[in-house]
Write a structure and sequence with these properties.
The chain has 15 helices and no strands. By secondary structure, the chain is mainly alpha-helical.
Length: 412
């Protein structure tokens, strides 16, 4: 057998491995002597060597699968950076640092003040705006530097996301690594990312404007804040869902009525978590977490008296702190109850592996999130608890999207 003779010729004594032996293996097999293939020659039997001799070029399916894993890992990395931006933005707002930078320049704004003269110039600009006049009147230059750097790092992190996404995206698109459907998703994500940056400055600008009635604490528009957070969550969700679909191999499930219902409930859960998070942005924008700091009642009442204090009535949903807090509480409790109900249903639906892990994690984090929300309310919105509550909402959304992705293959 010629192949057998060739295999015997290749299986030389290899106690003292040298480059000549590797070259000899290369000549015999006709393939590149990678470390893995050399290991096959040295450590496996004659049968495995024969298999190596029958090596064929990598299939098109294997190339596509490898590219999908690379793109999926890249999207999940960008997704993690977006999550960091959301959390950093929340802490920036909680520490009242978001209005410390009073102008916006894409390139020029990347360089912070360095000399004492530059810092004093930046501080003097800050003194011309409402936040200094009505909130930080007694702030020192050193204290100003702290809040300035908080907002500066938030902005620079956003620029870093742009570089981390747009440069690889351009490479993948020009090299033809993506399908038509994936190309559309990447273009959509890039567009949302650019829009998000512009929307961030548009939001900050609303807090720098002098209001006609300047008796209130200067703050950004709750509408723009909700739009800014909502856009970030859309971008995060799109990257996470797409990345998971490319990176993870799908698990097969046989369809059943219960499993189809769990799949439907997973979609509803994602929508509820998203909606609750947006209502939280209105709570943050109006400082509505400081209105009724009791639970479960509102100052010994189940329904507060000033729930519809504004006219017309629709304005209460977005501009009345009492109504905004009431709605957020109601949505949070409903979302938590719905998740626990979905978890109870899924127990008998035959979930296994990653889907079961996602479902159990979703139920556990929902209980933790409700606890963080109540604690944030009762302790008058401390930064640590409020930041943890915002992190919990992002974790809930992530687990709900993961569950959706795992059940994607369940068909009617």
């Amino acid at each position: 057998n010629p192949s057998l003779k060739m295999a015997n010729h290749c299986l030389v004594p290899l106690r003292n491995l040298s480059s000549s032996y590797i070259s000899r293996a290369n000549i015999c097999t006709g393939v590149r002597p990678t470390f893995y293939k050399v290991q096959l020659l040295f450590k496996r039997s004659r049968t495995n060597v024969l298999k190596l001799l029958q090596h064929r070029p990598v299939t098109t399916e294997a190339i596509i699968s490898r590219r999908h894993r690379i793109i999926g890992g890249w999207l999940l990395g960008c997704c993690g950076m977006v999550a960091g931006a959301v959390l950093l933005g929340g802490v920036t707002r909680l520490t009242e640092s978001g209005l410390s930078m009073v102008d916006w320049h894409l390139i020029k704004g990347m360089k912070p003040p360095r000399s004492e003269e530059e810092w004093n110039k930046e501080f003097e600009k800050y003194k011309q705006f409402p936040e200094y006049k009505y909130v930080h009147r007694d702030i020192t230059l050193q204290e100003f530097k702290k809040i300035f750097y908080m907002e500066y790092f938030h902005r620079m992190w956003g620029r870093a996301i742009g570089v981390a996404f747009l440069l690889p995206a351009g490479y993948f698109l020009t090299k033809g690594w993506v399908s038509r459907q994936l190309r559309h998703r990447i273009i959509f994500q890039g567009s949302v990312l650019i829009f998000q940056g512009l929307l961030g400055w548009y939001m900050v600008k609303s807090g720098l404007e002098e209001k006609e009635k300047s008796y209130d604490i200067p703050r950004v528009s709750q509408y723009r804040l909700a739009a800014h957070l909502g856009t970030a969550l859309v971008l995060y969700s799109s990257m996470l869902y797409t990345g998971l679909g490319l990176f993870l191999k799908p698990q097969g499930y046989s369809s059943s009525a219960k499993l189809l219902k769990v799949k439907k409930f997973a979609h509803i859960t994602s929508a509820l978590v998203f909606l609750t998070a947006i209502s939280g942005a209105f709570v943050a924008g109006l400082d509505a977490g400081l209105v009724y700091n009791s639970f479960p009642k509102f100052s010994n009442k189940w329904i507060p008296d000033d729930l519809f204090a504004l006219s017309p009535a629709w304005k209460n949903m977005f501009e009345n702190p009492t109504t905004v807090q009431f709605n957020h509480r109601l949505l949070g409790e409903a979302t938590g109850a719905f998740i626990i109900g979905t978890w109870a249903l899924a127990r008998g639906a035959g979930l296994a592996g990653r889907a079961r892990l996602a479902m159990n994690g979703l139920a556990a984090v929902s209980l933790l999130q409700v606890g963080l929300g109540v604690g944030t309310l009762l302790y008058f919105v401390p930064t640590s608890l409020a930041a943890g509550h915002q992190t919990g909402s992002l974790a809930l959304l992530s687990l709900a999207l993961w569950l959706m992705q795992e059940l994607k293959g369940v068909k009617k």
